[in-house]
Request: fold
Amino acid sequence: MGKRKNDSLGRRTGTRKHNPVCWISSEGQTEKDYFALDAIRKHSRFSVKHPQDIHPDRRNPRAVLKRFQKALRNEDFRAIDEAWIVVDVDEWDSDELGSLFTWASQDNRCHVAISNPKFELYLVMHFEKGNGCTTAPKVDAAIRRRMPG
Reply:
């Protein structure tokens, strides 16, 4: 059957604007859970996606970067998208963190976020100012006060 002219039931393609995607690769599960919260995503113009963890037990910055680069090659990383690597300061030396900065400087769509002392401080700051949470154990104690278990 031939196509009719002025077919009002036909589906138009290529007319819908694509939302940009913010790809986030992080060290741990807390970061993924945080960026999945509705309160965070509701006011964002980006869709948030996380690449599949190939080696989830490797959490050093170089491993996170290597895993992320592989995922971005396999996924549809478009010109309107952004890529973020989120890591904690921990005890990483300047070489480990330097590789992240080198990666981010090569493309203006790529960014690095480093939390000090740890990412969970952002969760604490939803409940209180976070004053005095200068070490990882202090952050953990504040989280336990607000979110037992």
User: Anything to note?
Assistant: The chain has a mean pLDDT of 81. Residues 61-74 form the longest helix (14 residues). Helices lie at 29-35, 38-41, 61-74, 94-105, 121-124, 136-146. The chain has two domains: 21-116, 119-149.
